[in-house]
């Protein structure tokens, strides 16, 4: 049901029945490596293009999530997913292979929670018995489309981020033992006039702050309700800006633990990732791999995942447009929320 102005409260308690997080070799060298289902040793995954490799990541993650949920592909009513490629071709071509009724979405790096929110809403409203949510990215495809091909060896500024190679998938259904998707807040487009594609953390931070504050305003709860609030991929630059904005707005973020997936993904001392991680796969694999593992082990019981996205395209950048950004928040809990 609608709660406040831009949030949904899922009174029928959609359940995350199965997840998969599959990554590339560089992600397998980071601190979260043991939380991923598969770490590939080959960035191409045996394919003859980066784009085919990204599609393969998603297909593998989808099939593994289905297996872990204990269902068949034919049981799934809808696949909701997207990626960073023009016309979301990684998701679309994977859907061609999977043959699941498909709803393609684009929220850039916010797609992981956009897709999960929509999948949960379908299940909550009984419009679906099983819904799949997905997001993926590949470092080489993203660099080639939005910046410079990695083969160029171009130098990047400290504000730049390193696109994750990975795919995250979840299966949402009507019944089970949890964890439960309890609510979602859909973000507004926020544009602070930034034009630099190498500084997307700064561009996305205001959207993250806007959605987080809207979530607590709509649901009339305090940040301390959650064990952890995690943004998608603001990384060092955007994370610092977000904290400054919370302080300026007198928003009590200090009541809980606040982290960022882009800062959790890699080892800053050993891996050259500039400000940190980004990519549609970033918050997907951190959530479906690392965070849900911690929830299963009861280290965390209530989390709010706020995936952030920069909605630029190569065309908009080439025409000198600013970067519009968005953030979508989804709460995941081990216990049914008391309405």
UniProtKB/TrEMBL annotation:
GO terms for molecular function: acyltransferase activity. Pfam families: SpoVAD. It comes from the Bacteria. InterPro entries: SpoVAD, SpoVAD_sf, Thiolase-like. SUPFAM superfamilies: Thiolase-like. This is Stage V sporulation protein AD.
């Amino acid at each position: 049901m609608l709660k406040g102005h831009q949030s949904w409260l899922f009174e029928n308690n959609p359940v995350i029945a199965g997840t998969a997080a599959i990554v590339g070799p560089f992600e397998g060298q980071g601190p979260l490596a043991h939380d991923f289902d598969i770490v590939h040793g080959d960035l191409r995954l045996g394919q003859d293009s980066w784009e085919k490799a990204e599609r393969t990541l998603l297909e593998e993650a989808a099939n593994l999530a289905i297996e872990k949920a204990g269902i068949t592909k034919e049981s799934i009513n809808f696949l909701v997913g997207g990626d960073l490629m023009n016309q979301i071709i990684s998701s679309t071509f994977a859907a061609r292979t999977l043959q699941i009724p498909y709803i393609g979405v684009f929220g850039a790096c916010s797609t992981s929670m956009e897709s999960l929110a929509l999948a949960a809403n379908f299940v909550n409203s009984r419009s679906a018995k099983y819904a799949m949510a997905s997001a993926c990215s590949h470092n080489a495809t993203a660099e080639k489309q939005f910046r410079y091909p990695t083969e160029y060896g171009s130098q990047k500024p400290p504000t730049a981020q390193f696109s994750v190679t990975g795919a995250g998938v979840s299966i949402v259904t009507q019944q089970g033992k949890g964890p439960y998707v309890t609510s979602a807040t859909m973000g507004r487009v926020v544009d602070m006039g930034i034009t630099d594609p190498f500084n997307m953390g700064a561009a996305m931070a205001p959207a993250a702050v806007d959605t987080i504050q809207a979530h607590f305003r709509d649901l009339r709860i305090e940040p301390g309700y959650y064990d952890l609030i995690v943004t998608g991929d603001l990384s060092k630059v955007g994370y610092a800006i977000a904290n400054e904005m919370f302080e300026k707005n007198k928003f009590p973020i200090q009541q809980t633990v606040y982290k960022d997936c882009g800062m959790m993904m890699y080892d800053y001392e050993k891996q050259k990732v500039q400000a940190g991680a980004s990519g549609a796969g970033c918050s997907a694999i951190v959530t479906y791999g690392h965070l849900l593992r911690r929830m299963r082990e009861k280290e965390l019981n209530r989390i709010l995942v706020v995936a952030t996205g920069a909605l630029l395209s190569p065309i908009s950048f080439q025409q000198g447009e600013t970067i519009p950004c968005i953030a979508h928040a989804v709460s995941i809990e081990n216990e049914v929320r008391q309405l």
